[in-house]
Amino acid sequence: MKITISQVGQHVEETVTIGAWLYIKRSSGKIQFLQLRDGTGFIQGVMVKKEIDEESWEAAKQITQESSLYVTGIVRQDDRAPSGYELTITKLEVIQVAQDYPISPKEHGTEFLMDHRHLWIRSKRQHAILKIRSEIINAVYRFFDQNGFLKIDPPILTPTSAEGTTNLFHTKYFDEDAFLSQSGQLYMEAAAMALGKVYSFGPTFRAEKSKTRRHLIEFWMIEPEMAFMDHEESLVVQENFVTYIAQQVIENCPLELEVLERDVEKLKNIQAPFPRITYDEAIKLLQEKGHEIKWGDDFGAPDETAIADHFSKPVFITHYPKDIKAFYMKPDPNREDVVLCADLIAPEGYGEIIGGSQRIDDPELMAERFSEHQLSPETYKWYLDLRKYGTVPHSGFGLGLERTVAWITGTDHVRETIPFPRLLNRLYP
């Protein structure tokens, strides 16, 4: 019976066959220990010389790291093993002996590993990170499906950006100029006016020449938009969403969290509601801590970390100044110089993982904003139409997948949270 490593728990004391790669091998003379991986997990296979045919024994002696093979054996329960199971090998068939595999158990530099990213993702740590990434993606779909959202796919090629084209990638769309999308938000607002509660989940592109551990050139965004929903109601959706993701990872990826040596107790503490602090309060807090920052400045990474260190959960920073936020954010009706928005800052120095706001729904005010920001009403006539034909209060937010994966996995740099990262100096592999 051919199975995967993830299925061994269903076949204890049964003879099975697994297609696998050799991860690590060690020998004690008459016993060979093979650490095997198949993409679904890792398991140790044990070969005892007197219990196996000579051909299989000799083949096992010749195989090298990342050689591919079929192993047949009996699944044994073993509480000492990380997965709880071990394989007593009764037959081994080599598919290919790998020659001179470049990534050995020794230490390698980051650039070397990034050059060999196509192979690096086979390692236990990278496997664990990408497995958790997949679980988070699945949790995103489950959460929105269970809460009455419809998935809508906005275009990746756009005629321009309502937030300016400085950080956009330019291309030609036949005889027109086009840009890779920075965000699907404006299109999602149109979808919300048709379908109520919607979300998108797709790649976005930022041509920022940034080398920080929080930035990628190409990354994935989850962007919900909700009709008939105000700012406060949106915050509740956001904190429930993040809580759900964290708890699903704890429940479904315990082995991966153990491989990463992640402090699970910190993740268990991620439970709604989350604390909230206004921009005014955040500025005062930072000034008391000696940060050189004044009202009207945006927060840098050290500022966000200093604020987050006051809380054991993610924290919302709300009501930013109008002048440092996007044109479409609705002003606070009680205070015209700030907007109804919030950034969600993750604990442990991982920075902003969500940005959201209530959107302007007044057609006259939106027209004023277009004029103030020198945006083309012709290019985005369709967006202005949303306020002209049946405008309603509505809110939305965007969660960056890679930063969220970095935070939940405890990974220092976002380059390890996406299979093939696109960085300022990297388009290979």
From TrEMBL:
Gene3D superfamilies: Bira Bifunctional Protein, Domain 2 (3.30.930.10), Nucleic acid-binding proteins (2.40.50.140)
Molecular-function GO term, any one: asparagine-tRNA ligase activity
UniProt-listed InterPro entries: Aa-tRNA-synt_II, aa-tRNA-synth_II, aa-tRNA-synth_II/BPL/LPL, Asn-tRNA-ligase, Asp/Asn-tRNA-synth_IIb, NA-bd_OB-fold, NA-bd_OB_tRNA
Superkingdom of origin: Bacteria
Aminoacyl-transfer RNA synthetases class-II family profile domain segment(s): 130-429
Reaction equation(s) it catalyzes: tRNA(Asn) + L-asparagine + ATP = L-asparaginyl-tRNA(Asn) + AMP + diphosphate + H(+)
UniProt keyword annotations, A-Z: Aminoacyl-tRNA synthetase, ATP-binding, Cytoplasm, Ligase, Nucleotide-binding, Protein biosynthesis
UniProt main location, coarse: cytoplasm
Cellular compartment(s): Cytoplasm
EC assignment: 6.1.1.22
Description of how the protein assembles with itself and partners: Homodimer.
Family per similarity comment: Belongs to the class-II aminoacyl-tRNA synthetase family.
Entry protein name: Asparagine--tRNA ligase
Organism annotation: Caldalkalibacillus horti
